[in-house]
Amino acid sequence: MAEEIQKKMQKELEIFSGVQKEYKKAVSQKQQLDSQLNENKAVKEELLLLKKDAEVYKLIGPVLVKQDLEEAKQNVNKRMEYITKEVRRTEGHISALENKQDAIQTNLNKLKNNLGNLKISV
């Protein structure tokens, strides 16, 4: 019986380890998205300071290409919308992983208690 509980604990620990890795990856991804969003907010603020006749250039590979100011503003807004959606999606994923970690931790605690109770009764 103790061996069976230990095997279950080992399996739960492996699952928990995998979930932790996925969680760290998701948190890292959210941090990257937050950074991109902040960068785009700064660009948007800079674009708002420009006059209507200002020249705006977009870096495409090694070349600067002239771009219409309104088009540049629209592109930044679209990027910000996309990044915001990705942040929300990632936050949902992180929340789900936290719940999964909690459930696995609860299972591990139960198995640990069962194992402890077995050893005491022996």
UniProtKB/TrEMBL annotation:
Keywords associated with the record: Chaperone, Coiled coil
Source organism phylogeny: Eukaryota, Metazoa, Ecdysozoa, Arthropoda, Hexapoda
Signal peptide: none
Coiled coil: 26-114
Pfam families reported for this sequence: Prefoldin_2 (PF01920)
Gene: LOC106122548
Protein name per Swiss-Prot or TrEMBL: Probable prefoldin subunit 6
InterPro entries associated with the record: PFD_beta-like (IPR002777), Prefoldin (IPR009053)
Assembly behavior: Heterohexamer of two PFD-alpha type and four PFD-beta type subunits.
A GO-annotated cellular component: prefoldin complex
Stated family: Belongs to the prefoldin subunit beta family.
A single BP term in Gene Ontology: protein folding
Gene3D superfamilies with a match to the protein in the record: 1.10.287.370
A single MF term (Gene Ontology): unfolded protein binding
